[in-house]
């Protein structure tokens, strides 16, 4: 496989837990600079696929490629310098400040020969600015709301200066204001983004969507091409049709049971 087939790719990807197959033969090429959304019903394998793409878990079958090189052949440090992941559950009970939490994102770039520098401090400040969290930097992690914690998680990932950002349902359990704010931040980032989403109307803003059903990739393409009424009925079990928002002409989904 050559690098031009995708900055992040997988071939024949599968994952088993005991006798259960959670992911089946997934083939995916993620293009440089795109925002790829991963959607599917609960239990369809979205989080599992993200963990495999990030190298957090090793596949039972198949391979993941980062820039054309097998992920398993790359040092963890190299992976962390290229790829950052924001998981659903990444809380900590440590008494840590927001500034220190975001500074951890610089860890893959530091060594005895390359200690903390003014450049690292500037990168951390920029990451906080990118998610509108500069005013939180002296707060403790425990004092943050759910929406504020999500912003700090993303800032920590941005401090890694990754080429690829993987996010697992970053709007999960957030109120609508925080959902919209986080998605605006993500879409404005100058990186390749892979994002698992629960809300299908939010998913319509992605460049492409990968639809998972029972661990299989059943559709891949532009949102309006893959989220057809037939696909929504077969995969998600809902009746739906598109409406045009008179405010900006955008198409939105209306669901029926």
Automatic annotation (TrEMBL):
<keyword id="KW-0067">ATP-binding</keyword>
<dbReference type="GO" id="GO:0005524">
    <property type="term" value="F:ATP binding"/>
</dbReference>
<keyword id="KW-0547">Nucleotide-binding</keyword>
<dbReference type="Pfam" id="PF00005">
    <property type="entry name" value="ABC_tran"/>
</dbReference>
<dbReference type="InterPro" id="IPR003593">
    <property type="entry name" value="AAA+_ATPase"/>
</dbReference>
<dbReference type="InterPro" id="IPR003439">
    <property type="entry name" value="ABC_transporter-like_ATP-bd"/>
</dbReference>
<protein>
    <submittedName>
        <fullName>ABC transporter ATP-binding protein</fullName>
    </submittedName>
</protein>
<dbReference type="InterPro" id="IPR027417">
    <property type="entry name" value="P-loop_NTPase"/>
</dbReference>
<feature type="domain" description="ABC transporter">
    <location>
        <begin position="8"/>
        <end position="239"/>
    </location>
</feature>
């Amino acid at each position: 496989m050559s690098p031009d087939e995708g900055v992040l790719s997988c071939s024949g990807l599968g994952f088993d837990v005991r006798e259960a197959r959670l992911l089946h033969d997934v083939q995916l090429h993620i293009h440089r600079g795109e925002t790829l959304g991963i959607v599917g019903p609960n239990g369809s394998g979205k989080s599992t696929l993200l963990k495999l793409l990030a190298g957090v878990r090793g596949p039972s079958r198949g391979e993941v490629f980062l820039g054309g090189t097998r992920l398993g052949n790359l040092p963890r440090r190299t992976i962390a310098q290229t790829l950052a992941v924001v998981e659903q559950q990444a809380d900590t009970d440590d008494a840590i400040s927001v500034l220190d939490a975001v500074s951890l994102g610089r860890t893959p770039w530091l060594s005895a020969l390359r200690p903390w520098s003014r450049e690292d401090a500037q990168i951390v400040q920029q990451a906080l600015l990118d998610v509108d969290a500069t005013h939180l930097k002296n707060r403790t992690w425990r004092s943050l709301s759910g929406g504020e914690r999500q912003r700090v998680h993303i800032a920590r990932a941005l401090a890694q200066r990754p080429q690829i950002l993987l996010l697992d349902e970053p709007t999960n359990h957030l109120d609508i204001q925080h959902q919209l704010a986080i998605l605006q931040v993500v879409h404005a980032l100058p990186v390749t983004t892979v994002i698992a989403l629960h809300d299908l109307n939010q998913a319509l803003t992605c460049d492409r969507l990968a639809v998972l059903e029972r661990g299989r990739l059943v559709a891949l393409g532009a949102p309006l091409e893959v989220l057809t009424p037939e696909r929504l009925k077969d995969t998600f079990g809902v009746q739906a049709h598109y409406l045009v928002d008179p405010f900006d002409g955008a198409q939105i989904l209306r669901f029926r049971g």
